[in-house]
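Budget justification note: compute hours in this period were largely spent on complex prediction jobs such as the one shown. Inputs:
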Amino acid sequence: QVQLVQSGAEVKKPGASVKVSCKASGYTFTSYDINWVRQATGQGLEWMGWMNPNSGDTGYVQKFQGRVTMTRNTAISTAYMEVSSLRSDDTAVYYCARSGPGVGASAGYWGQGTLVTVSS
Amino acid sequence: DIQMTQSPSSLSASVGDRVTITCRASQSISSYLNWYQQKPGKPPKLLIYAASSLQSGVPSRFSGSGSGTDFTLTISSLQPEDFATYYCQQSYTARTFGQGTKVEIK
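Corresponding output:
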């Protein structure tokens, strides 16, 4: 069965970086895009961007460009998302989600979420 | 950027009620519209994709309709397990979520 298992909760200081991992299993990792979505406590869902694990191509929401980097290690079927220059308003649960194949595809499988807390 | 506006932001309903949630896109998105359900502490769950296609395993009381800019999620007979927050998402270009609709017990 398809599973996305994310790394554990993180506590970081303002200005630091955090790297969240998302290990995929149960399917061919390079055949489906990985999306990253975040959700601040009590707030809605915010799509951050996507990555094609086959090509490594990425696309980021403009507000995150320059501060977010999505990468992958195909040998271990794992996607990563790194956020740098953390601020308090980056405190949120971060989700990876598998979408596709195909243009305009929905996200049918989600990781369990990783809580990132930014606090001095 | 495409903006997605859901209404209402919240609603109160009883078990057995018919519930309708609407989602409007700031420009035409054809049928690239998905609906998700989220319960507290859990990741979202895909209900409907491509505006009206029911995701495998999702009860048939859920249905979606619309195209272009206006879309609707309908729950034909609300069940206790349906109390949750619902989000629309456009997948026409990049992705954008609506702000969510919380369905509460009346």
